[in-house]
Amino acid sequence: MSNLDQLKEKIARLKEELRAVIIAHNYQRPEVQDIADFVGDSLELSRQCTEVDAQTIVFCGVRFMAETAAILNPNRTVLLSEASAGCPLADMINIDELREWKQKYPRASVVCYINSSAEIKAESDICCTSANGTKVVDSVLSNDIIFVPDQNLGHYISTQTKKNIILYPGFCYVHHRLKPEQVKLAKKLHPDAQILVHPECQPEVIDLADAALSTGQMLSYAKASSHSSFIIGTEEGLLHQLRLENPDKSFYLISNSQICTDMKRTTLETLAQTMELRQNIVTVAEEVRLKAKQAVDRMLAIS
Ligand code: 13P
Ligand code: SF4
User: Fold this and answer.
1) Is the minimum distance from the CB of 174 to ligand 2 under 6 angstroms?
2) Probe ligand 2: pick from 27, 120, 263, max atoms within 8 Å of CB?
3) Which strands, in side-by-side order, build the sheet including 144-148?
4) What local confidence, expressed as pLDDT, does residue 212 receive?
5) 274 pLDDT exceeds 90?
6) 169: exposed, middle or buried (C-beta count within 10 Å: 0-12, 13-18, 19+)?
7) Are the beta carbons of 59 and 65 closer than 8 angstroms?
8) What single-letter DSSP state applies at residue 88?
């Protein structure tokens, strides 16, 4: 038996022992996606976390995702596949900064992107993902909305709603560094391709795209589309599901820089070790969890 097969067998055995379910984000390494019980975007995985029949949730992704699972599942053990996997975007705002912004705009509601810590969620009125941002913003009664922490998603939502969006200046380096010139070059190389980008891209990049979509929405779009080629403006891990679901279609990246280092920290080895040692347990203080859960539940109720 090869080393890889031994590792897969070990993970399967540990899954039984822990009565675990393995959940993976679309940006994970192909071999991690393949071993997972569920693969999806942030919204799909949050929903999945409320429906699992398991004692342990093993989250292959980054910390805020495992934290969301812990917020929704106080009676289950949540393990993060790799302790050091964070999200630099989520880390761009801390609780003191958010409180200052709330003082500065006392009449505004706070909508936080799910890419944020449990403390930020607890201090927000409602949470959103890239799949439901406009719907969430439109559901809020107040006209003024502080949107944290991603300026590009917030800007994209502002083009889809009449609400006044106050943008916090955070960004995701993986998406923010994609340039319009790179998109134009990709289109020149693949003139028949549809351009699908994530709303974490800059407005000038989104303007050149055929659609701005969450990773889950990109999968649905590509499957339903009559087009046979696509230029993809999000993290390269998504190509795995795109190609599995559409073996006859072609997918191209805009640049070779579309890699989230944190998402790639999880390997089959780190996953097996996490499960074997029952380590990287993610917990959220109960007072914070209850408030954060309200923000996540409000989102799940309308999407
Ligand atoms: P999705 O919710 O679209 O999968 O995006 C998550 C993310 O981290 C984007 O960088
Ligand atoms: Fe965070 Fe960007 Fe990585 Fe998504 S791709 S986890 S937003 S750093």
Assistant:
1) yes
2) 263
3) 126-128, 109-113, 144-148, 164-167
4) 98
5) yes
6) exposed
7) yes
8) T
